Structure formats: structure tokens, C-alpha cells
Amino acid sequence: MVTLAEVAQHAGVSASTVSYVLSGKRSISVGTRQRVEQSIQQLGYHPNAGARALASNRSNIIALMVPLRTDMYVPVMMEIAIAVATNARTHGYDVLLLTGEEGPDAVRRVTGSGLADAMILMDVELDDERLPLLRGTDQPSVLIGLPAATEGLTCVDLDFAATGALCAEHLAKLGHRDIAVIGEAPAVYERHTGFAERTLDGLRSRSRELGVRVLHRPCEGGFDAMTVTLARIFDERPGTTGFVVQNESAVEPLLALLRQQGRAVPEDVSVIAVCPDQVATQASVRLTSVAIPAQEMGRRAVELLIAKLDGHGGDEVALLAPELTVRASTGPAPVTS
Amino acid sequence: MVTLAEVAQHAGVSASTVSYVLSGKRSISVGTRQRVEQSIQQLGYHPNAGARALASNRSNIIALMVPLRTDMYVPVMMEIAIAVATNARTHGYDVLLLTGEEGPDAVRRVTGSGLADAMILMDVELDDERLPLLRGTDQPSVLIGLPAATEGLTCVDLDFAATGALCAEHLAKLGHRDIAVIGEAPAVYERHTGFAERTLDGLRSRSRELGVRVLHRPCEGGFDAMTVTLARIFDERPGTTGFVVQNESAVEPLLALLRQQGRAVPEDVSVIAVCPDQVATQASVRLTSVAIPAQEMGRRAVELLIAKLDGHGGDEVALLAPELTVRASTGPAPVTS
DNA sequence: ATATGTTGTCGAAGCGCTTCGACAAGGTTT
DNA sequence: AAACCTTGTCGAAGCGCTTCGACAACATAT
Fold this sequence. Notes:
With 337 residues, chain A is an alpha/beta fold. Chain A is built from 14 helices and twelve strands. In chain A, the strands form two sheets. In chain A, strands 2-1-3-4-5-11 form a six-stranded parallel β-sheet, with helices on both faces. Strand 2 (94-99) of chain A pairs antiparallel with strand 2 of chain B, so a sheet runs across the interface.
């Protein structure tokens, strides 16, 4: 293991000079810099992370807490995680992967040990038990998701209320008057991971303004669950002509069942999905959808966090504007007799 | 920030005693231990990770390198990653998330800086450029996946050759004589991520023994790609009655297209999927499948790595035996005229 | 009784780095 | 020519921990 001191000796300078070459915190003459850099190359020197962390009191590590559960949006989570890792690297940070399993203890552990300089939390619940800890520490953090109270917190999320409203508007404009929302699994609502509720709220209130009736049904996803859910919907509201689906694993079952029942998409019923673009374009019908901008969320979270670490940038709630892409699954409501 | 020294003072012992209480590396009298533990509690002490790493030369961090690409098996990757993180914690290790993006440089960086004590690499290619580095260092590592040459390496993977063979056997036993393999996207083969090829090899050689003809077609996944692929298959081999699908995003399209063409599953054609159980049970037909044991792979990888870190356990290739679960998508081959 | 462990604790060194203050050498300003 | 910056470099302190050797205090073997 090559050390700073060895590099210094090899280059004929002092250890501190090498350190300053590395950090750029003091000016170094060109000649010296080059000699040092060359020594670093030749010796294959890598600064020791532990020593650096100890001396500088910064680990250059960001902790990312991902949900343990895999009952929803796994690809989205993965995409966010990868985006976070990738973007963090461009700022010189590495990412420590924490699972939700440890809960608040993980926050304490990481904060207390100086393992990470900052945290990003995913899958934030409305009244998340980790929030008091975050508020009570001076360690910067960013939430992906939106809790009930956001004072003192920095959050990034898709504007799900606007997403819901956007769906309502699109369907209303096409003449639909009775729409059904196929939501996330009941467990997601019980856990109060705000996004599902917020979508629904946005959709409901805009629908009310536009004179559209909304029926909401959570759904586990998968064919069997969807079969039951769909039957209930048509039972209760036979005139339903529009669907908004916020559950990746319900999309394909819904399309298959509609087909099976002889309801053509988009001639008889329209379907909007809230899902990543990839799902929307790979489905059996090219789906009109509101994209979940996973990469963008990861990127923004990192940027806000870096800003906080660098001292600028305070608390802020960054809601990304939803974008609805019209594809082949929505069309004018059928003319009723 | 509370330090060891403060705890020591509070408990009326020396710093080293506190350290030994924490590590258990020397015997401590019950009274002293309790006093120290109480002081730790009261002061809310957390050992500083950097100082610990510097002094002990171990970071208690495992690096996990996940593929950057998301063109395949994302849920599997995620599940493995989570399993790794969870299991690592139970052994007192945290997990550093590296993306494949940095490539071999990441290995160098992590190895050189002592950031992590060991690595787990996912998505290993047959002739992976990171392998020489791993062989050239004394840092323990485990691969998830199987490269072409495994000397000096520890690997965990599903036995994909046996998986292929198992599929062939199941279909042969049911009387199928012409089967098609819907493989991963062409890019996966081009990149030589061995598992796809190994499945195919296992399937082909067992099929030959059993007198079954095999037609292999890579497929991007999604409906459009599947439409083309399926048409080509029936064009070339109209008598195909068995399918093996090794691509999550091709499963549902295949089922839908078969249905659309009036080919009943499993009466007219049988379908076996190589996929996580969740996909198999949530599909529109409950699929006979060979499971991809993501959790188990993550767990095994961590265990092998910990064994190496603890000095016992050398290089080893752990191939998990595949298990085929018969569900509703396979049945006897139709009687030909 | 002496020699020989055992057990529990301490002090001190040192891990590899960052950073502060000092300061020589040279350049500017009066 | 004195006084003052600037620039580039160095030495030393210290970050918070682990770990080694030392050594009392007591127990056991001879």
C-alpha cells in the first residue's frame, strides 16, 4: 500500500505539498505539481479512504436508503438507485446502500459514525418515523417522496397531484364521464406512502371540476387480482369508459382482460398508465401515459444534496412537473345511446 | 460528536479498555463492561467509522458492483442487491453501491483506497475485463455469474446449463419434438454474459440426446419484437409445440400472441419460463418455470465473501441447482396427424 | 515458599491523511 | 530602500481509533 509520505519522498517534496496537489486547496507551482502527479502515477498511489475521512471529517459517501419491500415499482427504485450512484460519482461521492430494514436505527448509525456525509431516503411515508431524526441532526438529507409535513426537509418527487389532474383532464377532454382508477396494492395505501393518495386526490378534485365521476380501486396486480377488481368496477359502474392505472403489474392484466371481454382499446375504453416510459411502450397496446421520471428524480436528489453539502441551497420541495404522452390507448369516449 | 476517550473518562477507565469492550478481543471484567456499556448508552456514543478504518485497516464495507444497463432482469438485480445488503448487515458489513459504469477503474479505486474490504461483482461477462484485476489483488471477491475461466475466483450462479437441460427434459417427457427458445436481447449475447449461452448449451445438448429439435431466437422483448420473432419461428418450424422463454419482457407478449393466433396454452403449445417465481405466478397463465433464485444468490455470495474475509473458505464455484415448478403452461404435446 | 500462569487494565504508538501557521523568496508599492 | 503583499512550500499537530507490550493482582502448580 503506497502512502502519501512515499509519494512525497519519491517526488522530493513534503507530505503536505502532495496533499495540496491532490486537493487543490493551495496553489502549487506547475513544476512541483507535475513531479508529484508523475510520482502518483508511477507508484500507483490511491489515498486511503479511512485516513482521509478521519482527518477531514468527511467520508465522501452518500447513504441511500432503499425500501426493503419489493411490492411496487421495483424497476423505478432500481433506476433511481442507479441514477443516484452514477450522479454521486460525478460529484466525487460514493453511495452506501442501506435497506429500509434497519429503519431509523440505520439513520442513527450512519449519522453517528460519520460513515456517510449525507443521506437520500426513498419510499418516504407520509408520517415517516425517520423524519424526526433527520430534523434533529445537521447531516444533510434529501427525501425522494413527499411526507405530510415538509418543514425543514428537502424533497424531490414527481408532482403526483398534478399527475392525477393531468389524467383527469385528458380523459375529460376526450369526453369520458365515468372513469376508474386502478391503484396500487392495498398495502401501499395502508402504509401511507403519499404518492398513491396524492395522485388520487389530484385526480378526484380535477374530475369534480370537470364533471367526471371517479371510482377508485386498489389492486394487487397480477391477473387474478385484476380479474376480480375489473369485475367489481364494471359491476358498480357499467358505464366506465376510462381507466387510470397506477400499478405496473396491473397494466398488462387489464389490457388482456379488456380484450378478452371484447372491449376495444381505445375505441370502447381508454387507458392511461402512470409508469415508466419503457413499460408504456412495451405493453401490448402503446399506452398513453404519464412517465415516472426515475432518472431525473435520482439526479435532482443528488444535486440538491450536493448543494447542501457545499453550503448553498437550503430546504426545498422540488416537485417535477408530470408529462402526459399520448399514445394509442386513449381516444374519444364512445357515443352513448 | 462523542469520542471513545469521552466514554472512557465517563466510565473511569482507559480508552483501550473501552475499545476492548467494544471489540471483545480481550477479556473484561463484568463490572467494567457494564459500566462502559452504560456510559456508551448514556452518551449516545457511536464509533467513528473513519478512525476505525484507519486504525484497524478494515472498513467493514463490501462493495457491490451492479450492472449499469437495465436491459435485462432488473427485478432480479434489485432483489440480489437487496439480499446482499441485508445479509451483509447481519455480518456487520455495509454495502457500497458501485455501478458498472466506471468499469475496472472502480475495482482499482476501491481496492486501492481501502474503501471496501471486499467486492461482489454482478453481471459478469465470460471474459470480463475486471477479472485480471481481481486475480491480481488479495482483496476477497465473489462473482455473481460465471466467467469462462474460474481459476482463482469464487463464483455464485444458478446452474444455467442444468436449467436448460431441465427445460428440455420436461418438454421431451411431455412428447414435444420441436421446441423454440426465446432468448435474451441480442445485446446480451453480444456482450457474452455467459448465462444466456449456458442455458442454451445445456438445453441443446440435452435435447440432442432426447431427440428434440431446438430453434433459438434472441428477442428484445416487448410486443413488437415478439411479433416478429414468433412469426419467424412458426415460419421456419411450423410444428413447434414447446417454448422456453428466457426474457421476462417477452413472456407476456408471447402469451398474448399465442392466444391471438388461436394457439391454446397448454393444449396446443407448452411454455416454460426461466424467471423469478413472482413473474411466473402473476402472468396471464400460471407458468411452468425454472425460478431464478435471486435472494439465494445474494445470500450465498455474502456468505462466501464473509468466509473469505474470515480466512476460511477458498475459491469455489457454487452453482445452485435449478428447480422446475410445473404450473399451468405445459402439457402433453398435441397428437400430430 | 517460589515459580508459573491467568486475568484485567493501562499507556503509548501509530494508522495515513488534512490543515494550520510559519516562512523564505520574490514581486509591488511607496 | 523600506515596507508590504503574494506565492509556494514545509513541519507539526491532531483526527479517533486499534493494538501491542507491560504489568499489577491474584490463582495455581511445584
